[in-house]
């Protein structure tokens, strides 16, 4: 896949790494709904399952491969022939597809989990990549637990994977252990030491165990990685994966500094986030960046006053840019008279309809009791004041 050097490929794995962490699995119909939303969002590649794992997974990969046309569809395989063959069979209905095969490379995984030598693992990886290339010319190879893999072994494995035919080589921080400068340093070392590195796209796949998945992915991009693997709302194993909406909006908002872009249709972000949250039964935390309920709401009086003067005082991107209709100014005891007048105006009242000092005093008394005051509460306060005036 030829790409310009300032384009970052977005590889969505909501339906594979994201789905594997859910309490209840999604039906084929639900997976199709999510796949089509992710397609509308404009991702380059979507990883949609692990076909060898179950007949249901195989069927959903097959259905998605049959109907998704505007993104490349990919499925996961361990570095064994049966898994790779299952991917090729399930993905066959797609015009073009990617097979993603992986094996662990860290000492702890190679010795404790696989009970093999590093040489055995290397041989399995090379065989798997060559076998996958029989079915497609788009093969991705992942060095599982790359973040904890000795750097000499990682360099050797990446070089061998590219020679064997991998067109994308993925560097996962499987357990979310690395720090941003450390992870960026690993990518930089690969670019400095692997002689054939420019023959493949270097991808990253970061988990969020220390809350660093997005920071690590961006650090890797600054070091030369050109594919980010991520999920909607950051869902995934344990503390989740790198969040798609966050990296997409970082590259849009800080484009001048970073010099890279994605092809994400950012206006679809809120809608896609809501669909995934509902179907996966995974509520999004209120203060989650970009898609949390409070991401574009302002509570303090000072901030609300600033927002009424110019929206860029406290917002670095507009809610409309991610598909949310407008900024919310929460009415709380920290809100000032200015925001109350503004809200009354948006509810259709003119200043001559009420006396601001009286309304504001009643509003503060109510806000102290109940926290957030809603539009209906404000209108009820006005109604009560009018009733009392008439007595
Ligand atoms: O976290 C991980 O290492 C993975 C690989 C299969 C890419 O999900
Ligand atoms: Zn993962």
From TrEMBL:
Binding sites annotated in the UniProt record for Mn(2+): 17, 205, 207, 241
MF terms in GO: 2-isopropylmalate synthase activity; acetyl-CoA C-acetyltransferase activity; manganese ion binding
Residue span(s) of domain Pyruvate carboxyltransferase: 8-270
Pathway the protein takes part in: Amino-acid biosynthesis; L-leucine biosynthesis; L-leucine from 3-methyl-2-oxobutanoate: step 1/4
Record's subunit section: Homodimer.
Protein family membership: Belongs to the alpha-IPM synthase/homocitrate synthase family. LeuA type 1 subfamily.
Protein name in the entry: 2-isopropylmalate synthase
The organism's taxonomic lineage, starting at the top: Bacteria, Pseudomonadati, Pseudomonadota, Gammaproteobacteria, Alteromonadales
Gene designation per UniProt: leuA
Full protein stretch here: 1 to 391 of 535
